[in-house]
Structure formats: C-alpha cells, structure tokens
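Hypothesis: this fold can be encoded by more than one sequence.
Test: take the structure tokens below, design a sequence, compare later.
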C-alpha cells in the first residue's frame, strides 16, 4: 500500500484531508495527517477580537472536530522533511515514509526578525493581531485607550491576508468614533508599499477611503528597528514614525521545519509551480496555502481554490498521469471598511480587482470594489461558511476555483496591470 502524508492541519491541510478522504480508495492509499497543535483557529476572526466583536468561542475549535474518519492523525511535531529519502522525521524520534507529500505548514509571524520589536514595548505599546495571543492582548490595551498616536504598520510583504491591516485601520476609525475618541486619536497607516494596496485600481479605491476617514498614510517605509525608549519605528533610511500604540504586522515566514529541511526560500516559503502546486524541486512533493511562494494572496479563499486544483492533481499523480495547470491565482476577499459596510474584491494572476457583481453577472448579490452593507454581512457570514463548509470540503455552488470574468468591468489597464503583477 502506498502512503500520502499531509503536514499541517490548518485551513489548507484540513481541506485537503477532507477532499482526499472522499476521492481516494483507502485500500490503495494510506493517508496520514500530522500537526502538533490541538486547536484550530479561525484566523480572519482575529481582526474582530480587539474591538470586542468576536470572542474566543467564535474563533477556536478542536482540530479533531474537522479531521475525517478513515485517515490517520498524528498529533506531533515534524522535525525534518527528508525529501531525498521520501521521509518525514518526527521530534519524538519516529519517522514516516511517503510516496506523495502535501506541505500545508502555513505561515507564522516572526517579530524577532525586526530589531527591538519584542523588547520593552512589546505587548505594552506594541501589539500584533495576527495571533490569538496578540489579538487578545490588544483588546485589553484598547479598553484603556484614551487617545494619542495609533499607528497601524506592515513590516514587509508577503503577509497573510494582505488587506487585514487596512481593515484594522478602517475598523479602528469606526470604533474610535463610536467612543468619542476619534478626534483625540491621530490614526496613521504605515506600509512598505508605494500605495495602499498591491493592485493599482483597488489601491485607488482603498486610498480614497483612507483619505475620507482622515487616516494618514506613510508609504515606502521599510522598517529597520523599533525604538522602545522613544516609542517610534525607524526605517532603514532613518525616517521615523512616533507611536503611543503600535499595531504591527511582523514579518511573515514559513514554518521553521521548512528551513530545517532546506526546502524553502529566504522566508521559508516553498518554491512551487504557480499553476499545478507541485514543488519545483521534488516531483512527489506538493505545497498549498501559505506554505507556498506563489504570487497569490495568502488567504483562506486562495487555499480553498488551490485545494480543488491540488485534489485533481494528486489523483493524477497517483495514476502517474500529467498534472493540470489549472490554478489561476484566484483570490476572493471581503474588506471591512467600518460603519457596517465592506468592499469585496475578486481577482487572479492576470486580472486585478475591478468593479462588477459577484457571483452572478449583473445580479450579485454582492458588489465588487464598492462599499455596501450586504458585503459586510457576507464577511460576517463567512465565519459560519468556514466552520461548516470550507473546512469540510463541501461544495459551494456558483463559486469555482477559476475566476470568472463575467459580471466584471474590465478596462484594458486591469488586464495589463494584473498580467504584470
């Protein structure tokens, strides 16, 4: 009997386990899922926790609740992937051989990569919200906020959910206004990019919202260090941004096991074929979700679309058939803008976000690249969909892994900018 291993029981790994359990004959392939952590986190919910909109109960479930029967589950730490020998070594001392390997080890924040970030101000004036612990600590800090300089900051790209720092800024503007603290707060958004977002048309829309909400923007800021004594962040070219409360997105990196295994780039992301999801170096290794180096968003929707393509390609690999070059970089994301509204974007490798309707051409019900209350409710509904549909690999009628151009307004610059990205 042949063996398939899945490393990581986060969003991508859990979806793959459920997809494959439905499609693979257990008499032919033994499948094993390995993860060291017992809790599964709904990471998009971390955005809402600092503002008291979500509680711990909304974002945490036991991982075992989503792992299908008929699949081996090992709760343990992977020490090393020995790709030359088709073997995974566990920290406990054991090892598992494989014929096919799926790496779904995700991405993690690495605040220690920035000088001074984890020193005196850490979790006192400097917080992140990309971790459960960080979001919880930031919630406590905001309860005591009475005004001052609130800075939202991105260390470097790529990051998980690239729009989340913008969403935090918009929600902070709303939250402060509700509490009579907006006029007492100088709200600043600091990014290493040259504009609000990576895609020009979308960046123009989001930039307008930042100006409308009187959120100051500092672009091209590449952080060198956090000055804990003077409470400011300093760039490599010595620009400074002072803060009373810094909400930062630290450097995001792939799991340390990728570095230990010599399989990743300088940020521990695996070089992956952008259309097949096969490792560029090892034909029987595949990567999915945040573990890849793909030029696509590191977001749950992307992992969902990738999982559909990867499932087909693994079935091809099991039968020694050619792989399908079918993943187009499709990403779909609701962007909270505050005051009970949100923007929806839908794009891929070739087409940047544009206006239109989704998922039905001309009917919606969601509008693309425009604020609406319905988009906000779509964002909130996604939590239920995540727990009950996405993780369980249930079908979502009308939303395919390939981005549809129907219902979208596609000026020439949308195609040209998207293709060049």
């Amino acid at each position: 009997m042949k063996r398939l291993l899945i490393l990581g029981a986060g969003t991508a790994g859990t979806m793959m386990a459920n997809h494959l359990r439905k499609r693979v004959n257990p008499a032919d392939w033994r499948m094993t899922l390995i993860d060291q952590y017992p809790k599964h986190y709904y990471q998009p919910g971390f955005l809402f926790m600092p503002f008291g909109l979500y509680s711990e109960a909304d974002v945490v479930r036991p991982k075992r609740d989503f792992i299908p029967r008929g699949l081996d589950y090992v709760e343990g730490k992977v020490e090393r992937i020995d790709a030359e020998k088709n073997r995974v070594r566990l920290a406990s001392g054991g090892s598992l051989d494989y014929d096919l390997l799926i790496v779904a080890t995700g991405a993690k924040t690495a605040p220690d990569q920035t000088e001074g970030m984890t020193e005196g101000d850490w979790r006192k004036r400097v917080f992140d919200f990309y971790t459960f612990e960080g979001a919880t600590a930031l919630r406590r800090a905001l309860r005591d906020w009475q005004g001052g300089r609130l800075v939202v900051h991105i260390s470097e790209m790529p990051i998980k959910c690239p729009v989340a720092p913008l969403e935090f800024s918009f929600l902070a503007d709303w939250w402060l206004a509700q509490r009579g603290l907006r006029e007492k707060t100088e709200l600043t958004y600091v990014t290493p990019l040259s504009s609000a977002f990576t895609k020009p048309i979308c960046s123009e829309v989001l930039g307008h919202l930042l100006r409308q909400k009187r959120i100051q923007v500092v672009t091209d800021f590449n952080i060198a260090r956090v000055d804990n004594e003077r409470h400011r962040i300093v760039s490599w070219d010595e620009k400074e941004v002072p803060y009373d409360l810094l909400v930062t997105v630290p450097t995001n990196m792939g799991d340390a096991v990728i570095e230990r295994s010599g399989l990743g780039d300088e940020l521990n992301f695996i070089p992956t074929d952008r259309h097949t999801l096969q490792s560029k170096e090892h034909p029987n290794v595949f990567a999915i979700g945040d573990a890849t180096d793909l030029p696509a968003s590191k977001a749950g929707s992307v992992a969902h679309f990738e999982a559909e393509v990867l499932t087909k390609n693994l079935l091809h690999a099991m039968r020694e058939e050619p792989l399908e070059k079918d993943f187009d970089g499709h990403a779909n994301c609701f962007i909270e803008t505050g005051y009970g509204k949100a923007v929806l974007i839908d794009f891929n490798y070739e087409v940047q976000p544009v206006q239109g309707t989704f998922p039905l051409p001309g009917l919606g019900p969601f509008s693309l690249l425009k604020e609406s209350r319905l988009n906000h409710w779509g964002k909130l509904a996604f939590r239920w969909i995540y727990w009950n549909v996405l993780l369980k690999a249930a079908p979502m009628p009308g939303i395919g892994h390939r981005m549809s151009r129907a219902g979208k307004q596609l000026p020439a610059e949308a195609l040209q900018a998207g293709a060049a990205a």
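Confidence is low (pLDDT under 50) at residues 417-421. The domain at 111-252 is CATH 3.50.50.60 (FAD/NAD(P)-binding domain).
Hypothesis status: open.
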